[in-house]
Each structure stands twice: as C-alpha cells, then as structure tokens.
User: Fold Orotidine 5'-phosphate decarboxylase from Ureibacillus yapensis.
Amino acid sequence: MNNKPIIALDFPGETEVFQFLGYFNESLFVKIGMELYLQEGPAIVQKVKEQGHDIFLDLKLHDIPNTVKSAMKGLARLGVDLVNVHAAGGIRMMEGALEGLEAGTSAGNNRAKLIAVTQLTSTTEEEMKNEQKINLSLLDSVLHYAAISKQAGLDGVVCSVHEAGKIGETCGQEFLRVTPGIRLAGGAAHDQKRIATPDGARADGSSLIVVGRAITGAQDPVAAYKEVCELWGEQ
Ligand SMILES: O=c1ccn([C@@H]2O[C@H](COP(=O)(O)O)[C@@H](O)[C@H]2O)c(=O)[nH]1
Assistant:
C-alpha cells in the first residue's frame, strides 16, 4: 500500500468513474464507497483494480459479529488494500471482521488492512453528545474507539486530522490514522465539520488522507490532485 492521497470516487456510476480516471496517466490510490459500490457491485472493484490503482473499499460494516465476519470473508476475495468497519460495533464485531478477512484472503496474498471508523468527520461534539448520548469530549470518544480497535487487533482507524496526533501517541505510530475531511485552504466544507488541509494533516500526524470533492469537484481535477500531493508531501 502506498501513501498517496486517497481519492474518493464518489460518483453515481462507472461511466463517471472512468471518465474521471481517464484524466490521469498514473496509478492512484482510490476509495470506492457506498454510493458507487451499491450501484455497480463488486465488478467495479475488479475494473478499477485492472487499471492498476490501489483501492480502499469504504463500506463501513456495522452488524452483529457473525454477519460482519461472513461479509468480510467475501470482501477479502476482492483483493483490495484497505477495508473498514464502524468501531461502534464493538470489540467482538471487530475481531469477527478480522477473522473473516484472514479466512477469505488466499494463501500468498497480502491481507487487506482493516481499520475502524471512530466518529465520522461530519459529526460535531455537540451532535455526538446530544444524539449519541456519549458523555465525553469528542477527542476522548475517538481515543476510546481507537483503543478498542487496537485491542481487537485492527490496523488503524478513520478519524479527523484533529485527533490523529493523539492517537499516534496513545496507540503507536504504526497504528494507521486515515483522515477524510480534507480541504484546500478556503475550499467549501460541504457537510464535513472536522476539516483540515493536506499540509495540516501531514503536520498533525495523519498516516493517509482521503480527498473527495476538493479533487473530483474541481474545474481541473488533475491540477487539484497535484496541489494536494505537493501539500501532503507524498513520500
Ligand atoms: O469519517 C468519515 C469517514 C468516511 N468519509 C468518506 O470520505 C470521503 C470524503 O469526501 P469529501 O468529498 O472529501 O468530503 C467520503 O467518501 C466519505 O464517505 C468521511 O468523509 N468521513
């Protein structure tokens, strides 16, 4: 897995995806999420992989342990690089996810990294307290979810840049902090609440950044991607 900025392919179908990918003449790290996967199914993963791109399959599984285990076993066969669940599903569910992923990975292939969503980057502390009835600061809630994800044996978490540094200190620098909510300076936040710039993400301890609309919605997506790469300082 490389550490290029991960481009969120939040498009309604494969026509838009391949038009977008056609602007680039290099291999990318892309994210296939619910919008695209639920329209196109597993075939879209195969088609994007055939073009040589690394893939984060962002389906955020959250169900009883047995169901998540079986679903992960199936997803493992798609041969993606990164997959995820919701940490709110609990330790047994996350352990099940890992078992399923290991069971579904064919001998000789690398297992996909498994990460857990802590608090969505669209959530504010006020919303978390009022709607989820979690009586902690948002940072403490994220740190708690990171701690139980690590306890379950996962490879890292999805969090915002604002919590990434502290998670690195408490869970170790090898524990991945994958951070969406990335915007170029002055860019619209849309529905995101805990946002940061690519250079801010680098400075504050992200391991990988996820960038959607700042690139896919740009007048010149290739120029926007290059700007993100420069600010992120792709290694
Ligand atoms: O906490 C989370 C978890 C996942 N996402 C996903 O990342 C992208 C972000 O898109 P932008 O257009 O850059 O806002 C999107 O696919 C989300 O589903 C997230 O934003 N926050």
In short: The chain has one domain: 6-232. The CA atoms of residues 27 and 51 lie 8 Å apart. The pocket of LLZGTKA7 is lined by residues 8, 10, 33, 117, 120-121, 158, 180-182, 190, 192, 210-214 (CB under 6 Å). The first strand starts at residue 6 and ends at 8.
